Amino acid sequence: MSHRASALREIQREIQSHLSRVRLSESDGSSESDADDGEGSTRTRYDEKDLNTARRRASASSVSSWEEEVSSRSENARARGASQRGVDRGNASTTKGNFRVRVDAGMEVRLRRAELRKVDVELKLAKSFEQVELARRALEEAVNIHKMYELEFEEASEEFEREQELVYEELDRRERESRAEQMAAAQAAAVVRAEEHRREADASFKRGNMSEAEQFYSHAIAELEVSGIVLVEPSHLWLRVNRATVLFMLGHVHEALAECELVLKVDSGHIRALLRAAQCCLNLSELQRAQRYLEFVSLSPNAQPSELKEALAQKSALNRAFVEQHKVSGNESYRNKDYVGARDSYSSALDYLDAMHLSDSIKVKVGLLTNRAAALMMLGNPLQAMEDCHETLALDPLHIKAQVRLSRCLLLLGQFEEACTEAREVFNKDASTSEQKSEAKQVIDDVQSTQQLIDTHSKLLVKMEETGHEESVDDLERTLRALDEVSVICPHAAIVKTLRAEALRLKRDTYAASQLVCRLGDLDVRGLCVRARIAFDLANVSDCLESLQPLIPALELYAGREASHLIALDGSQPPEEVIKQIPNPASLLQILEQVSQISELKDAGKVAYIRGDYAQAESLYFDALKLCKDSDLLQALFLSNICACAHAMEDYINALASAGAACALAPKYAKAHARLAAIYTELDMVNEAQQIYECLLDMDLSHDEREKVHTYLVTIRDRVKAELPANWRKLLGVGAKPSKDELKKKYRQLALSHHPDKVVRGGSSESLINARAAVSSRLFNLINDAYNVLSDDNFVIKWENARVRAQYKCSHPCQDSVWRRAPFAEANSTRF
Which long-range contacts (CB under 8 A, 24 or more apart) does 443-451 make? Predict the structure, then answer.
């Protein structure tokens, strides 16, 4: 830039010298030049305009291009000037030439002036660029200096903050130390004052001034707490324990308990605090908390003997409180007719009473036992109530209320003589109140009326059993109503249960009768007889033998056998006395003989069946069937077993006959129905199988059995929808391609065996004959249908095609090619 500025200055000097020479030459010209001033001024204005345009161009162009343009124009101006001067000299002689020279000179002057002004402007512009560059460099340097000063300022600020924090920390430390010193001094003074208050409180406690002692203990605790001392030292805890003791003696139990709990939060094993807290909880009837505190004291290894002794005394008081609490709760429950709650409360009170010996424990226990006996009687447990009454009388033989309740328990249990004895003793005692005598008289009257009803209807039932007048429905109904009235008075009497079971059995309600005599331990001789007869009617051979087992010696004696080896029933009664109590011993002896033979045949048939000798098993079951004429259920049981044997030998016609007869004899016998359904399923008699399975769902089945029946029903219904025809060949027991003669021979054999006119088979009862007659008609029709189909070749082809189509539908229920097991297919095979 300096070099260019110097070049421009040199050009400016040349232009100025040239202009000066032009002015000198123009001064000699004519006045025409003056006349051109107007035009020159006008041109000067145009030159100024050109100058402004040049300025704008100069500002828009770069400095380098402008310099080149100035240089070129300067050289051109010099050349034109030189040439013009030459021309002017040559033509100066003429006016026209002079005029042109003057015009050219004026233009040249104006051009030179414009160029001079342009050079001046360019010089100023160059100078401005230099100043701008200098300013930019100065600005950059100033920015760098500013950044440097900013960094220095930040470092100084951080250092200042660090130093200030150190100053503040030092000030805080000094302040804390000052406060600590002040606190230590204040706490030392507070400790001294608290010690003085403690001594004054101890002195007041010894004088018996509890209010003053509590105030001093409170002041001591307050002095320590206000001074900021945490009460965790043993001496501090003792202040709270002592204050709790004083508060308890003043009757402020809740505040005393709160003080003890504050101590226990710091030291959970503080023995005195535990004892004092237990005492407060006991006073507040919070017995469970008191028990927990005392258990802590008993288990603590730091407890002194005196403290353990005090804990033992508090446990006695606690147990007494528990007993009283449960007693009150039991009385309240009894008044509200919550006898279960009353029984439980009295039992809990007795448990606490037995856990700790009290001075008046016998008196309290007698009252609790009597009350529990009353609750047990209301709950229908006279046996347990009687035990409580016996225990009460053992503790207090003169307790009349327990004796009255004992007589009532004996009446409920059917022990009429003992009940009358106890009631008469109460009635004859002078110490008995009028209410107790009235209750005893009521027991005596109930015993007499109950005994009279039992004797009357017992004889009536024995007469019905011996004469076989089971059809006396009116007498049975009257007997049952009378026994129901007796059951209200003595519901747990074994004789009443026995009589009601006997009446229900004669009424043919065998299942209800069995529920009354289900246990052997509660039964007498007559009860065992009734249970044996009911078990025989229900085809329960094992229960029948079990019931007859204690009566076998007496029955053998009745049969005239040697009685030397006979054993008395329960070791108490000889067979001669037992035989007198058996109603209708002849029929019972017959049942015993039948059941013994039936049991032997049944066991032998079971062994033969397991061995695989189905024919032998079937023969043994037929022999047992002949002995069961008096029990439809027993006949149904052996017919079901015969069906199983025939099914195993693939004798489907006889299996259907036996199973159908069993179902007719025992409509609720599930096993016979299940076997009948299985045979129908195997013979592809799907409609009949579906009907039997649906009947099974209405019977008393277990959960697993019911699920199996549902599963079978699903498959059977699919086969019913497919319209699967029966398997007539399997029904008749012929092969796949039987000859005409073979088929005809088989048909005649089966038709003759199962003709309805020839149903007396096996020497069974009339009920079995009727059942076989109904089944034989159905079987005879099936045999005819099977023969009609198989004896005609056209029918055989249609029947086989129908079976193939149905089997295909069963195998493809959704037109899917899937393999599955057919639960009821032949031999349980798999098919596609």
Answer: 443/404, 443/407, 443/408, 443/411, 443/419, 444/420, 446/411, 446/489, 446/490, 447/411, 447/416, 447/419, 447/420, 447/423, 449/489, 450/411, 450/416, 450/486, 450/489, 450/490, 450/493, 451/416
